[in-house]
Design goal:
The complex is a heterodimer. By secondary structure, chain A is an alpha/beta fold. Helix content of chain A is 32%, strand content 18%. Chain A is globular, with a radius of gyration of 21 Å. Chain B is α/β, with parallel strands linked by helices. The chains are: A alpha/beta, B alpha/beta.
């Protein structure tokens, strides 16, 4: 059963003087609530989670008909903090702050937006870092492996908590897009529109291969201690850093890396000489190391393993002999899919496969293929065409639901 | 079948339309709409800003999808509430299943496509009926222009020979011969000059031809 939310909202509504001013188009200062669910959750693996909590943020207001809710699903390293400024850390703006806010593409003047930290993640939801009530110790490596479908089932209770029978839209990019797709298959009657950006209906061998390299880096780090590093007060920093470095390469296009770094040397010797060592020689190495180290300070290694494995397992067509069209037969939602031409992690072919399967089922599909240079990361960035498509699409949802006209345009598309 | 007196927009009407008070579609699009059964499934290739599909959705309750390559047009179609798939038509229609639609439309695009036969075959594959419109190169003043030593340039084909996207221009008879060779059974023809429908000597007097054909697969079923 759903317990009432524990909210830190008063802190958010009492501005302190040292906070930076709220920029136009921002949802402002926000704090998470933590929803606890005591009913056991049976997972795809067969294991049962006796209870769990999920960290949630919401923006905008749920209307009386509860018809204007949008669920935003996050990707690998993100969280429930989708938009606005964190009350406790004012410089932490949400990971999709350019997309969600009053007057932005996902317009919180009209939509009630829900961000949820995935079960098994490390930003406040139950996961490897939280305490297993049965042992009094952190779950660590004993936390059950999860699938994308498990996340959907866990999040269904968030919808129930808010009394949302049907989301106006479920939306996500990358791994979040896989969740949105899974929502449309698993709970067809609860999804009005499904927005899937830079995503896929199943990982390719190459995708799994990159995940495996990342996992091996973590699993073979001596400080990983078979996943029980919390008790020993260590963190597999090196493994986690390397995992992030590998991931980071796949998020960017060759083109963007070339233009950002080229072959620029970090601190060349006299006359541009090489140092003839394995220390940082090129700018790109310095950048990757920095990204890896930064990541290892805030992300949990067990969570990284768990999330990448859930990515690997996702394959809704598997139960239908590989036939994605048959897997999508239950879907009722309209779809918007967006891909980016330079995304080689989930290249446009991945999206086209979903488009084709949806068309076979006579579903309404809109598909945009944005010629942006940024690779997979483009889904987080501010390409104006991308945002115009999403904004136009959401304005159409608002029209159909009678949520009124857009009152303002802020963010990427503001003039 | 020919009550089109309410049409006021010129053939080259600008596409800046507001949400409300859309201007009436061009006369050739109105004719295309007449050939489409209410409630049927329509695919509009090169759908531009989605105006035809929006009109068909409102007036004939069709379930439609458009295909368009241009970013700005795709955005305009999305704003109009039309389902649109961004894709280059030269790549074929692999996203679409056999007989997935009742009617497939290719409006004023055939003449600029590299693979003319291929797209016509693909149209016949994905829908029972195809509708194609193109500028008529046989329009008699074109001959006059050529006799005077110049390639024709007019409202329907407003390009110089060196910057035209129209690489496969044809006459009405040319098209009919190709259609016959591909097994496409022509069911209807309408021809226009500006806002006027042309009924006599269409091969010489019209600037725009609109054909409707039935695919060989559709004819068998």
């Amino acid at each position: 059963m759903t317990k009432p939310a524990v909210s830190a909202d008063p802190a958010a509504s009492a501005p302190t003087t040292d906070r930076p001013p709220v920029p136009a188009g921002s949802v402002g200062y926000v704090s998470p609530q933590f929803l606890s669910f005591d009913e056991p959750l049976t997972l795809a693996s067969g294991q049962v989670l006796p209870s769990y909590s999920l960290a949630v943020e919401t923006y905008g207001e749920l209307n009386a008909a509860r018809s204007n809710a949008v669920l935003i699903c996050h990707a690998l390293n993100a969280s429930h903090h989708v938009a606005g400024l964190e009350a406790d850390a004012p410089h932490q703006s949400g990971w999709w702050d350019n997309m969600v806010g009053p007057g932005k593409a996902v317009d919180t003047d009209r939509f009630f937006v829900v961000g949820v930290n995935n079960l098994g993640s490390c930003f406040g939801s139950t996961g490897p870092t939280t305490v297993n009530p049965a042992t009094g110790q952190p779950w660590g490596a004993s936390f059950p492996l999860l699938t994308v479908e498990d996340w959907v089932h866990a999040q269904e209770r968030v919808a129930d908590h808010f009394g949302i029978e049907r989301f106006a839209a479920v939306m996500g990019g990358s791994l979040g897009g896989m969740q949105a797709l899974s929502w449309a298959i698993t709970c067809p009657e609860r999804v009005g529109d499904c927005v899937v950006v830079a995503s896929t209906a199943r990982l390719s061998a190459q995708n799994i291969a990159f995940n495996e390299v990342a996992r091996r880096a973590i699993l073979t780090d001596p400080d990983f201690c078979d996943g029980d590093y919390y008790a020993r007060g260590v963190v597999p920093v090196n493994g986690l850093s390397v995992a992030r470095m590998v991931g980071h390469i796949t998020y960017q296009s060759d083109e963007v890396m070339a233009s950002k770094f080229g072959r620029a040397q970090r601190k060349p010797g006299p006359n541009g000489q090489y140092h003839y060592s394995y220390d940082v020689e090129f700018e790109v190495e310095s950048y990757l190391r920095h990204q890896g180290e930064k990541f290892s300070r805030y992300f949990d290694a067990n969570t990284y393993l768990l999330l990448t494995r859930a990515l690997d397992y996702f394959d809704p067509a598997r139960a239908c002999g590989g036939d994605l069209a048959r897997a999508l037969a239950p879907v009722q939602a309209r779809f918007l899919l967006v891909s980016f031409t330079t995304d080689w992690r989930f290249a446009p072919e991945h999206s086209r496969e979903m488009v084709q399967a949806l068309l076979k089922n006579h579903r309404e599909v809109t598909y945009a293929e944005i010629d942006a240079p940024h690779g997979h990361d483009a889904f987080l960035l501010g390409d104006a065409r991308y945002h115009a498509i999403v904004q136009g699409y959401y304005d159409g949802i608002a029209r159909r639901l009678g949520l009124g006209d857009r009152r303002r345009t802020t963010g990427v598309l503001a003039q | 079948m020919n009550a089109e007196s309410s049409v006021s927009a010129p053939l080259s009407a600008p596409v800046a339309a507001s949400q409300s008070g859309e201007p009436a579609p061009r006369i050739d699009l109105l004719r295309i709409a007449q050939w489409i059964a209410p409630g049927s499934r329509v695919l509009d290739l090169g759908c531009g800003d989605g105006r035809l599909l929006a009109y068909l959705q409102q007036t004939r309750q069709v379930r439609g999808a458009g295909v368009e390559i241009d970013d700005e047009q795709v955005i305009a179609a999305v704003r109009r509430g039309v389902s649109v798939i961004q894709q280059n038509l030269e790549g074929g229609l692999a996203l679409f299943d056999d007989a997935q639609f009742d009617t497939v439309v290719l409006s004023q695009t055939l003449q600029s496509m590299r693979h003319t036969e291929h797209i016509l075959r693909e149209m016949a594959r994905v829908a029972r009926y195809g509708i194609v419109s193109f500028p008529n190169f046989g329009y008699w003043p074109h001959g006059w222009s050529i006799l005077a030593g110049r390639m024709p340039v007019n409202d329907q084909m407003p390009y110089e020979w060196y910057d035209t996207p129209n690489i496969h221009l044809c006459t009405l008879r040319d098209f009919q011969i190709l259609a016959a060779r591909l097994g496409l059974r022509i069911t209807d023809l309408a021809a226009f000059r500006g806002e006027r429908e042309i009924r006599y000597l269409r091969g010489w007097r019209s600037m725009l031809a609109v054909y409707r054909f039935e695919s060989p697969a559709g004819a068998r079923s």
